[in-house]
Specification:
Strand order of the largest sheet: 12-11-13-14-15
Function: RNA polymerase that catalyzes the synthesis of short RNA molecules used as primers for DNA polymerase during DNA replication.
Keywords: DNA replication, DNA-binding, DNA-directed RNA polymerase, Magnesium, Metal-binding, Nucleotidyltransferase, Primosome, Transcription, Transferase, Zinc, Zinc-finger
Catalytic activity: ssDNA + n NTP = ssDNA/pppN(pN)n-1 hybrid + (n-1) diphosphate
CATH topology of the largest domain: Dna Topoisomerase Vi A Subunit, Chain: A, domain 2
CATH class of the largest domain: Alpha Beta
Helix content: 40-55%
Strand content: 5-15%
Radius of gyration: 31 Å
Shape: globular
Largest sheet: 5 strands, mixed
Distance between the termini: 51 Å
Structural class: alpha+beta
Protein name: DNA primase
Enzyme class: transferase
Number of strands: 17
Number of domains: 4
Length: 683
């Protein structure tokens, strides 16, 4: 366990203490309480690489320490390549993989889980700068929390000693029966609260600790009968709950009496302890996850202890309740894809479904959940004791993505033997998927759900309906037979494409080609270049090379800049610039007209965004079409398609009017189609 604070009953009044309980004040408010220029001076004195260097290993091949240009594997997500860039001159870091960015203060907040002021204090000590006088009210609150933390440490020591006395014999026998070794008891500081009304109260009062501190720490409750306050924890095995930095902020107590109404009891919420924003074993799990271990979210204290003692040290647990939104954010800060470990019984599956509903709106690219479903009737402790560590390792390897649990929830125990029941499933799934905020993730969930749906129902069979008066014979609903395209459709350059992939590929290529030819545009469009979804892997690699070169040094010479890109991604550059539609594009051929390049780049981004937005809307609309199609809606969709084709033809006419080789563009389109140069969607 991380070392806690000095074990004294009361913190010295002149020692500033700041805990990690989430406060209402924002970072801006804290910054305003500091003298003008203090933070600027602090950032000037502290080298960012020296702060971050505590947590990363620099890539010596890519780094240039003399120029303050350093690269390393990102400490915020699991990776093997060095995509995390630190610029000492600017005092700024950025990860090209997960897009984490910030300065020394934000780094300490994220990695060390410090508050704003704790990060400032840490940097000030490193820089040898005295901290300015604190706001008296904030200082009083901080000192109060420090005193409460000291009381909690004294209580933890009292419980540890009580476990070793005669009163703790039954508790020791129980723990031995659960196969907890002396090393486990010491590592997790497990103790015992004897069966008595004022045992802890009397001990703390004898240490000279004030009554209001004992009550404020949640260790005792006032009597309603005019007597002395009584202990909250009695005849219970005690588990200290520590914050991310190792300070005892609460306790969990497991009842020894089987008839006790509460098997597990946690400390009440206090100035130190917010149950919905705390995790058991937070600090050690964070350290283990940072070393590459999978983060496991278990249900209780004993599960975490069993996992940690079996070598799965990155294990945490919520504190007696379902995971909250704040706890889920904390978990994602420890690992982008934690493994939620649940019992295989009905209660475990029910807990999983509640967590799914909480997590879906919060999902981001690269940030999700996987689920480890244990055999029914077994928790992690049971499984490790009965089947051993290897069985647990195999269960972890078989973790399922969240979409599988979602599908299981919606389909288990149900029969879909009628159109009405199938339609009810479709409606339920659409409602769930619409709750996903990220459009890309929402789209991928839709694709996977459609795949699972096809597996469940089998391939759709064509269904014929009687010919209605005035309608073309052979009209069908469901799976459609191929029909000859209309003359107007055959005339479109897009008719040969199986979907929007060709157009998106071309837009992506033009964005990169313009940025490569006119590197001065990168600064203006940096955010869009960074966040646009490059669906072609080669384009994505080239985009990262562009941004890395841009962040490495200011763009002074276009030719020299392009040389750096060629050195980093020469094959992708050659492939891009050999495309006919890129070679003939005016902004690429005219490398001197920067204003025209800006205009063209903005247009390419707008067209790509509009196309993908329209795709998402159409897909959502098509998902809503259950049952028979409406002829009016079909007519409207056809008119929309015609309008889109007219717009594309007018764009090609514009290119033709500028003297470009339209035949070459058509030939290039055909080459892309034949060669499958884009990433096709799954059928």
């Amino acid at each position: 366990m991380p070392a806690g604070p000095a074990r004294s009953p009361i913190w010295p009044p002149d020692t500033p203490r700041f805990d990690l309980v989430v406060e209402a004040a924002t970072d801006d408010t804290h910054a305003m309480s500091l003298p003008p220029g203090f933070l600027d001076e602090l950032r000037t004195r502290v080298t960012l690489s020296s702060v971050i260097g505590r947590k990363v290993t620099w890539d010596q091949r890519k780094s240039n320490a003399a120029k303050g240009d350093l690269w390393a594997p990102c400490p915020f997500h699991q990776e093997k390549t060095a995509s995390f860039h630190v610029d000492d001159r600017k005092g700024y870091y950025y990860c090209f993989g997960c897009h984490a960015k910030g300065d020394a203060i934000s780094f300490l907040k994220e990695v060390e889980n410090m508050s704003f002021m704790e990060a400032v204090e840490d940097l000030a000590r490193e820089a040898g700068m005295p901290m300015p006088a604190r706001d008296p009210r904030e200082a009083q609150k901080a000192d109060r929390r420090g005193e409460l933390a000291a009381v909690m440490e004294e209580a933890a020591r009292h419980f540890r000693l009580a476990l070793k006395t005669g009163a703790g014999a039954a508790a020791r026998d129980y723990l031995a029966g659960r196969k907890l070794t002396g090393a486990a008891l010491d590592r997790f500081e497990i103790g015992f609260a004897p069966d008595g009304w004022q045992g802890l109260w009397d001990h703390l009062r004898q240490k000279g600790i004030a009554e209001d501190l004992i009550l404020g720490a949640g260790l005792a409750r006032p009597s309603t009968k005019g007597k002395q306050p009584y202990d909250v924890f009695r005849n219970r095995i005690m588990f200290p709950i520590r914050d991310a930095r190792g300070r005892c902020i609460a306790f969990g107590g497991r009842a020894m009496d089987p008839n006790d109404s509460a098997k597990y009891l946690n400390s009440p919420e206090t100035e130190l302890f917010d149950k919905g924003r705390s995790l058991y074993n937070h600090g050690p799990a964070r350290e283990a996850a940072a070393k590459g271990q999978p983060l496991i979210v278990a249900e209780g204290y004993m599960d975490v202890i069993a996992l940690a003692m079996a070598g799965f040290e990155a294990a945490v647990a919520p504190l007696g309740t379902a995971i909250t939104e704040d706890q889920l954010r904390l978990i994602w800060r420890l690992h982008p894809e934690p493994l939620v470990m649940l019992d295989g019984d009905t209660a475990g599956i029910r807990a999983a479904t509640r967590l799914i509903d909480l997590a879906l709106p919060m999902l981001e690219a690269g940030q999700g959940l996987r689920f480890v479903i244990l055999p029914e009737g077994m928790d992690p402790d049971d499984m490790i004791r009965a089947r051993g560590r290897e069985a647990m390792a195999k269960a972890i390897e078989a973790a399922q993505p969240m979409v599988n649990l979602l599908w299981r929830r919606e389909t288990d125990g149900k029969v879909f033997d009628s159109p009405e029941r199938k339609a009810a499933l479709d409606k339920s799934l659409r409602a769930v998927i619409k709750g996903i905020a990220d459009p890309s993730i929402r789209s991928h969930y839709g694709e996977e759900i459609n795949r699972l749906r096809r597996e469940l129902f089998g391939p759709a069979k064509p269904t014929f309906v009687p010919r209605a008066p005035g309608r073309q014979q052979g009209r069908r609903f469901g799976a459609a037979v191929p029909v000859s395209p209309l003359p107007a459709t055959r005339g479109s350059l897009l008719a040969a494409a199986p979907g929007p992939e060709v157009e998106e590929y071309l837009h992506e290529a033009m964005i990169l080609a313009i940025a490569l030819t006119h590197p001065g545009t990168i600064e203006r469009f940096e955010s869009q270049i960074e966040t646009v979804d490059m669906r072609d892997p080669g384009h994505d690699r080239l985009r990262h090379a562009l941004l890395a070169a841009f962040h490495a040094a200011p763009v002074a010479d276009a030719a020299a800049f392009r040389g750096k890109i060629v050195a980093a991604a020469g094959e992708e550059v050659e492939k891009l610039m050999s495309l006919a539609h890129v070679r003939i594009a005016p902004p690429v051929r005219n490398a001197e007209d920067a204003d025209f390049a800006v205009m063209c780049l903005a247009e390419e981004f707008a067209r790509l965004e509009a196309r993908r937005g329209a795709e998402a809307e159409i897909e959502e609309a098509m998902e809503d079409l259950t049952g028979l199609a409406d002829e009016g809606l079909t007519w409207r969709l056809s008119r929309a398609a015609e309008a889109r084709h007219r717009a594309e033809r007018s764009k090609l006419d514009e290119i033709s009017e500028q003297g470009e080789d339209r035949a070459a563009l058509s030939a290039e389109l055909q080459r892309l189609i034949d060669g499958a140069a884009w990433i096709k969607k799954k059928p």
